[in-house]
Specification:
It is built from 4 helices and no strands. It is mostly helical and 130 residues long. The protein has 2 domains: 58 residues; 71 residues. Helix 3 packs antiparallel against helix 4. It starts with a helix and ends with a helix.
Length: 130
């Protein structure tokens, strides 16, 4: 059991920088930051680490984070993203069939249901927090 804990700790220590770099680059893309100097990257890194540390100090139970991620991202991956991909693929077609157009409408309806499920799940996660 001790060896397993050590292995998990090593995995976390060495995989966190890789995941964090992706998150930092995503934030820079989200806010359309073109200047990618060391000063800019370091400032964003410090800001993100401060935010994550503040959240870690505030949240004592990681189950809220897991519940919120499952409610939002889980439903998005299952219902919303596939429907959006289908709609995008059909829009690029020259002459899609009527059946395919109905399929897109059905998929978008399911995406709406998925968003509803996500909202309900997020509400329940917040309710369980208090």
């Amino acid at each position: 059991m001790s060896f397993s804990r050590i292995a998990v700790a090593i995995s976390l220590v060495f995989s966190y920088p890789l995941a964090f770099q992706g998150a930092r680059d995503g934030v820079m893309d989200l806010f359309n930051i073109k200047e990618r100097t060391n000063k800019t990257s370091n400032g964003i890194t410090i800001g993100l680490l401060a935010m994550v540390t503040g959240m870690a100090l505030k949240l004592k139970d990681v189950s809220f984070v897991l519940a919120m991620a499952g409610a939002t991202m889980g439903n998005a991956l299952i219902y919303v993203y596939p429907a959006l991909m289908l709609r995008g693929a059909v829009k690029k077609m020259d002459n899609p069939s009527a059946g395919l157009k109905r399929e897109v409408k059905f998929a978008m309806t399911q995406a709406g249901v998925g968003i509803g499920f996500g909202l309900i799940g997020a509400k329940m996660a917040i309710k369980a927090l208090s």
